[in-house]
């Protein structure tokens, strides 16, 4: 466990050992049939077909690897996640691994750590005003439920994800020896084809009480229609409900270098069967969310995120300019 970083061993040695373990997991990924390894070897699954075809999200694994690497190489950490390494080490794969610890993916790593931290900070405020339900939409390998610091105040956690990813996550937890806490309920939903409200109702979600929702790294993979319907549902929940989600700006906002990087990333994601679909213009987000029924909206620009979470670092870790978050409150 990462908590051993603060033990008696030399911290640098411990970090190197952990990084070695994560790297080994990544090499295993390359070798696995039907997985990321095959996609990287050029046998890509049909574009957009990965989840629909029953394979778990490779980008969920990629995000989890970034959080694991963040625990090991970044100091200070923006996100403290003692389960982050455990859930990926020994797993069947780590797609972004070669990139994960190298300089070129530092911005992505910062963004992935920051978006979880920001959601968890907002959740603290929601819990303080009485919210006792947290719904992670597209939870991936997020480990919040295992760390839930609000469990003693009765915070229930609902992890919503595509059935293919969720089944795989449950296997991952078991393989890592992590017991799902009693406060966690798994809810499998395909946002493109199923009604979130129905599945939450069947899972014991209390519609008469407010809830906090997060949707981290998910909007970009949804059709605009599925994103809108999901947010419309949150806006119809009990007053006091809130959603925090990450989004990425359209290509028209990028300079030539960022555009070239975007095109490379889009091609890679499409080859993995998880194409990027939806981008949002930050200036339009408040109006769109208000039109869905939200009362108060806040957009966290990368500049504000860097000021809040990355100031005074000597390592220069920062989120890139295209990474935004929005928070919307149902009043
Ligand atoms: C990039 S991962 C992010 C996972 C997690 N939120 C995190 O930050 O690590 C995208 C997640 O969205 C989920 N997802 C994508 N399309 C989906 C859909 N149509 N229905 C439900 N979940 C979906 C994937 O299964 C995956 O868990």
Question: What does it look like?
Answer:
The protein is built from 13 helices and seven strands. By secondary structure, the chain is of the alpha/beta class. It has two domains: 2-105, no CATH class; 107-329, Rossmann fold. It has a seven-stranded mixed beta sheet, with helices on both faces. S-adenosylmethionine binds at residues 51, 57, 59-60, 63-64, 138-142, 161-162, 165, 189-192, 216-218, 221-222.
Query: How many H/I helical runs?
Result: 13
Distance between the first and last residues' Cα: 41 Å
CATH class of the largest domain equals Alpha Beta
Question: Could you spell the SSE succession in H and E letters?
Answer: HHHHHHEHEHEHEHEHHEHE
CATH architecture verdict of the largest domain: 3-Layer(aba) Sandwich
CATH topology annotation of the largest domain = Rossmann fold
CATH homologous superfamily label of the largest domain: Vaccinia Virus protein VP39
* Structural class designation: alpha/beta
Average pLDDT reading: 86
Helix content: 40-55%
Strand content: 5-15%
Q: pLDDT below 50 for ≥5 consecutive residues: which ranges?
A: 1-9, 24-47, 91-97
User: What integer value in Å does the Rg equal?
Assistant: 19 Å
Number of domains: 2
